[in-house]
Amino acid sequence: YWFTFEDRVKNKTPPYYYIGSKLNCSFENGIIYDSSGKEYWSSCKQKRFLNALMLQKPSVKIIQIDDDLDVIEAERKYQLEVNARDNPDYFNLVYAGGGFGVSGETHPAKDPEVREHMRLAN
Length: 122
Fold this sequence. Notes:
Elements: E1 2-4, H1 6-10, E2 17-19, E3 26-28, E4 31-33, E5 39-40, H2 47-55, E6 59-61, H3 71-81, H4 112-121
């Protein structure tokens, strides 16, 4: 999925977009619902993203539906196309697959460059 915070676009207040993915969900009337029927607005815990979400629910574009493809791989593909991690127009701080399920010293957030990028974003 691709979120667009329309008010932020209109007011020229980046970041404007977030690219993510979700398994076992449905999409109705512009909203993603998880398998329990709750609205889903990303697993992102970034402070500035959560603040933007409190001010406005983004418009949602489904960019790919494919049960056979690894959703993390598809998410990463779209993020790389727009250089989302390093693009100030995007909330994404890491590329998909770069931190999910990873812990300890191998987690990307242990990298000083990534930590600085995350610090500046919040």
